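Anyone have tokens for Alcohol dehydrogenase zinc-binding domain protein? Sequence:
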Amino acid sequence: MKAFGIDRYKSKEGLVARDIPVPEVGDGDVLVEIHAASVNPLDAKLGDGEFKLILRYRMPLVLGHDLAGVVVRVGSCVQRFKVGDEVYGRAADGRIGTFAEFIAVNEADLALKPKTLTMEEAAGVPLVALTAWQVLVEEARLQPGQKVLIQAGSGGVGTIAIQLAKHLGATVATTAGTSNVALVKSLGADIVVDYRRDSFEKLLSDFDVVFDTLGGKTLEKSLTVLKPGGRLVGIAGPPDPRFAEQLGLAWPLKLVMRLLSRGIRKKADRRGVSYSFLFMRANGDQLRKIAELIDAGAVRPVIDRVFPFSKTREALGFVKAGRSKGKVVITMK
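Reply: yep, here.
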């Protein structure tokens, strides 16, 4: 089968097209013929080696985390799927590789594709929707009537998070550039701060939750808009000690992560709020719930651009440039 991968981290060649064997199918696995995949900033960061200390991959490595396609083979213990099912999912860490014609995925990481979406649309959902779900529902426990600030509302995660937060009954504020204000308003944002003109920390206050997707100075400024007892959840770092425990990392790495997040955790404590870091995980059960929301019309993916499979390298470059609205998708068909 054809696939796109890297030979080493920070390779000058970048993504390289190659022919590799079709993956073997384990007892609990589903072999999916991929019809579409999406490109995420995570793919670019992984290729640059940003996660090599915590995600150990052998080279060469086929990149890609999201997929939508058709089941062509099932393992002997698979119960949820059959040949011919249309599915979507986020391949689990350690088993990525959706920039390819086929992938073997554990059945627990897949769900039936939303009926109202095309393959291209469905491929743009899993990673960003799971991230939004795990931050807003699991971590922040967002409740009706609460106020949430979602940073970078026009990005892949932001476009889904705005819609999910509105579905949960929250008042939603977001940040966006001038050209994207209309987009995020159309998704349900109640308050939009144009970051090119205004500073969100000067305009917003008394928020229950901040969902930070940017990190750095934006992360620290986000603390100032929270009310006492508020929660700041970040996906751009720094990782915290609990994350290190969840991964089961060796004590030197646990110490590193404790030190990396010590500053933001202390600042949060002084303001009477909390900070936590989330690195999303594959979860087929959550994708089933998300599919129900999509088919009910509560959430829709925003697709910026669709590239043919042969242009996967260009698609990754477009995402690395950081200006996409919603998701960038690769289609195989």
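The chain has a mean pLDDT of 95.
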